[in-house]
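ok trying again, last paste got cut off:
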Amino acid sequence: MQKDILGNALLDYFYGKYTEDILTETNISEEDTLPLPYLFRNYEQMPAIEQKALTLASGKVLDAGCGAGSHALYLQEQGLDVTAIDVSPGAIEVCTGRGVQKAKVADLLDVTERYDTILLLMNGTGIFQNLEKVPHFLKHLKNLLTPGGQILIDSSDLIYMFDIDEDGGVWVSTDKEYYGELTFKMSYKGDSSKEFEWLYLDFNLLKELAAESGLQAELVQEGDHYDYLARLTF
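nice, full thing came through this time. structure:
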């Protein structure tokens, strides 16, 4: 069984046992730190892209991959009907403890209820895992939208991490179809997760794949470092 690295770390922080942060590592980067306090940030501490997404959220909302529930809590405080889901049992325990009224352990692909707004934040395209699975996820997300509904999703263009030749070609590892496909691993207090796939999509490719799935992608806002917020509708 996959260890709940994220959940265990969130639980430690929530119950006052914070002594260290999560360590992350990918196939294209060295070991890095994911500070636990950042996962408990309030609205004022969030990046502008996340703040924008929250201001655009309306109606009945699904916060997919909710983590510690910071986005769900804010929207709940604004009077919205929010359901927070995550595959991490520890994360959902923390969400409930922090006051999220509707929080449950669930995989996005198992959701059948429809929503006016679906939030996929903190590199929301990561949940797609790899390029091949994007159409399947987009089709499913489209089926979860009410008429006039929207998907608010963010990601980053990782092109800046690679060498580009004179013809515009990107030098990437030959075992990956696309430079935004990463192999990821998380560690916490001596425990490590199994390696898992995590996808960063540049906006132009997201727009192209969305169109193939009958969705229109709008670039809502760009961040300071190749990151962006997109709005998908049909």
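cool. Residues 5-14 form the longest helix (10 residues). The chain has one domain: 5-233.
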